[in-house]
């Protein structure tokens, strides 16, 4: 009886939390978008129709990024899933390196390399290969945003497609070959239908990530995108209700994307053949050399943002020269002495630590209830826990500003409470998945033995279950902490006063300082990249193949 009462209280608390900080902001946005002044109206959506170019640009960005990551990820997935060769493990690790540098930070260095009079154009001019500087990023910077998104997001597409290919039953493909199907026809009629769930899982994440990214377009000064429009309207949220309508548009595109994905996976995609690929065919000779060349070329291009940020961070001065005029570590020292950077680091450490602790408390409770509990509404709790993974950060942050304005949580006065909550809500799925994986591996007989010896449910969880899943909880906590440290959308929107700036808002602010801002910002970016790299490596060691499940929406 006490156990049932405790479960009911936990569920009530969780539902209240999700209601207040997930459903309420979304509901507030919808009510103001469709019922301005208390009356139903579509007037703001009619005004948006006059800015169709903004929506089309965002859709184009998402679709082009998805198509480009598919073209990069598919051959890599076939290479890593179907073939065996020396150095495969090392190459697989290198392919994932771009994930440790958010495109928001990479854009800083890429601007330095590929600006009109950046290092690349100056080198080509000196070699006589061009007569005037090239516009590498296209009109308005759209191409630059695409390139950064593709180089950062192709690992997500590659991971999902490689996992999907590994689950394709080889005997089905062999049957297709025996019936005379060529490689192209075999792929479209057998292989792709069987790997479709994995592909669309990656495609949806890539599309929505690119569609809702805020930081990269801001760095490239490309403002004709929906997230940037929302960001610019935060300061006038009550004077100009257009921001509500734009947020509804983002949510509509998100829902539509998932609906289309589900439609594609119906019917003949519903039942999948499944098999074990084994070690795969051996690659040798020129085929191995060609595979290495292609994969390393992609890795090399993907590492360009990392290289450019690293060079910018140690350049004492880098202006109208191919290489930095002088190398110095003084900007790393400034990171820990400059007033803005030092306070932002302290703020981010404080905010990320508390949000990770909140994720730990809520995530462990949810995972345990999903694994061990039996109660009505279990599926609803699962959906609510995973929903933030599909919810764009710019949507939630705007909803917080609008919904809690004028209350004790108003971010205009002190954004810390909402920053902690927003970081926690956005990263909660990582903790739930990590804890869920750990609880799955704990034999229930161990808990039953503890209960039979007289220990209560809470004591059993504390003394038996949690120590057995401690590694999983540590991995999830580290991921939640590190991703919160480098969160972009929530930080840019919610932190409005300089004394409250987290690291990413400080980096954006520093970029406005022409003299030394980009150099200090790059040094901060390198430290953030190091933090994220260590976090991902540590979590990968603990979670192994389950690591990829953290980035999937069920």
Structural overview:
- The chain is mostly helical and 554 residues long.
- The chain has 2 domains: 1-41 and 329-554, MetI-like (MetI-like fold, Orthogonal Bundle); 42-324, MetI-like fold (Orthogonal Bundle).
- The protein has 25 helices and 4 strands.
- The chain has helices spanning 2-34, 43-49, 52-82, 88-95, 103-114, 119-127, 142-166, 170-178, 183-212, 215-219, 226-232, 242-264, 285-302, 304-314, 330-335, 339-372, 378-390, 393-403, 416-440, 444-452, 457-468, 470-485, 489-494, 503-510, 517-543; strands at residues 83-84, 281-282, 315-317, 326-327.
- The strands form 2 sheets. It has a two-stranded parallel ribbon with strand order 1-2.
- The longest helix has 34 residues, at 339-372.
- The radius of gyration is 25 Å and the shape is globular.
- The two termini are 33 Å apart.
- The model is unreliable at 267-278 (pLDDT under 50).
The CATH architecture term of the largest domain is Orthogonal Bundle
Proportion of strand residues:
under 5%
The SS-based structural class is mainly alpha
The helical percent reads over 70%
List strands and helices in order, with pairings:
Blueprint: H1 2-34, H2 43-49, H3 52-82, E1 83-84, H4 88-95, H5 103-114, H6 119-127, H7 142-166, H8 170-178, H9 183-212, H10 215-219, H11 226-232, H12 242-264, E2 281-282, H13 285-302, H14 304-314, E3 315-317, E4 326-327, H15 330-335, H16 339-372, H17 378-390, H18 393-403, H19 416-440, H20 444-452, H21 457-468, H22 470-485, H23 489-494, H24 503-510, H25 517-543
Helix pairs in contact: 1-12, 1-18, 3-7, 3-9, 5-7, 5-14, 5-25, 7-9, 8-9, 9-12, 11-12, 12-18, 14-25, 16-17, 16-19, 16-22, 16-24, 17-19, 19-22, 20-21, 22-25, 24-25
